[in-house]
Design goal:
single chain, alpha+beta, 8 strands, binds fe (ii) ion
Length: 343
């Protein structure tokens, strides 16, 4: 027994000495993240507990973090970039910021349509772009598709945020894919003609405008609605009660879904630890923290959330389109919005 123990400790010592540099590399991972939710603490602590790898975190705005990695170039300490929207991950990919990762864990846990086909970046939670309506002005079932937002019957009744916003660019990317460029442009023109006001503010502002009766319809990511519904402010909860939610296109191509995602950066000093971190993100516990922090859905189907607002929306048909297409279509999307003068 004693000699067995001794030989184990000798073997360990050898391993530690010969692998000193490697071990050093694997003790830390540097994460640049545009996420900052309450559940993130538990998420990061869980990783360090499981792997012994320490996390250094830098939080910032989505676009400023991409700019920062770009400026730091080969000297960047960043290993992982976490950000939202496939369209934004695509931009970072276009700038050559990521390196491809091959991982059986990631490939088996994340559905193929929610990750970049060459492993440049991966989705870790899902969001849906839903139609929100004022319950006093619109009857349930009166609108069921994105296409119907362009119907002249809604003239002066639709609020939309700016077309330069990544969520609307990605939605257009999906419309181009499903309708073709011509019909997608006709749609944009129709929606533009239906606007109750010039585009301004974010998704929450559109929802509040709908609740206040400034317009009858808008589109928003579901988590902005969930934030209102779960708010600790009574007026926000009341606003949510005035809003009905439609999961569009259930009878056709499905509701447009997008992701929060991440990739390993090209100049990552701690590549192995970075891959381990991404693999940790698809574990059951991490999936719950990651999705629940922002009222999103996990990408791992078997992981169920205990989120009353999302659960009330129920199961729904999601657009099976690979989210990388949303990025690929982005230049065309912006051209269409510009041509129809949707600000
Ligand atoms: Fe958002």
């Amino acid at each position: 027994m004693r000699s067995a123990l001794k030989s184990v400790s000798v073997a360990l010592a050898t391993l530690v000495v010969s692998g000193a540099a490697l071990a050093q590399d694997n003790k830390v991972v540097n994460i640049y993240s545009s996420r900052h939710y309450q559940t993130d603490e538990a998420l990061y602590t869980g990783f360090t507990k499981t792997t012994g790898i320490k996390i250094n975190r830098i939080e910032g705005g989505e676009d400023s973090l991409i700019e920062r990695v770009r400026n730091e170039g080969a000297r960047s300490p960043a290993d992982v970039l976490i950000t939202v929207d496939a369209g934004r991950l695509w931009r970072a990919e276009q700038l050559g910021l990521f390196q491809p990762v091959k991982s059986a864990v990631l490939e088996s846990r994340i559905p193929a349509n929610l990750r970049e086909p060459n492993g440049q970046w991966f989705g870790f939670s899902q969001r849906a772009r839903v139609i929100a309506y004022n319950k006093d002005k619109v009857k349930p079932g009166e609108i069921q598709t994105y296409e119907e937002l362009a119907d002249p019957k809604w003239k002066g009744r639709v609020c939309m945020r700016s077309s330069t916003n990544i969520y609307n660019l990605s939605l257009m990317g999906a419309l181009i894919n499903h309708l073709g460029e011509q019909k997608a442009e006709a749609w944009a023109k129709g929606v533009r003609a239906n606007l109750a006001q010039d585009p301004k503010g974010g998704d929450s502002d559109q929802l509040k405008a709908v609740a206040a009766g400034q317009c009858d319809l808008t589109v928003s990511n579901q988590y902005y609605y969930a934030r209102l519904a779960r708010s600790d402010k009574a007026d926000e909860r009341e606003a949510a009660q005035r809003i009905g939610i439609v999961l569009p296109n259930q009878k056709t191509w499905g509701t447009h879904v997008n992701i929060s995602g991440a990739g390993v950066l090209k100049n990552a000093p701690n590549r192995d630890a970075a891959v381990k971190f991404l693999e940790y993100l698809v574990s059951d516990d991490a999936q719950r923290y990651f999705a629940d922090g922002n009222n999103e859905w996990p990408v791992v189907d078997s992981v169920k959330l205990d989120n009353p607002v999302l659960n009330a929306l129920g199961d729904f048909k999601r657009d099976p389109l690979n989210v990388a297409v949303l990025g690929r279509n982005q230049p065309g999307s912006q051209k269409i919005y510009d041509r129809v003068a949707w600000k």
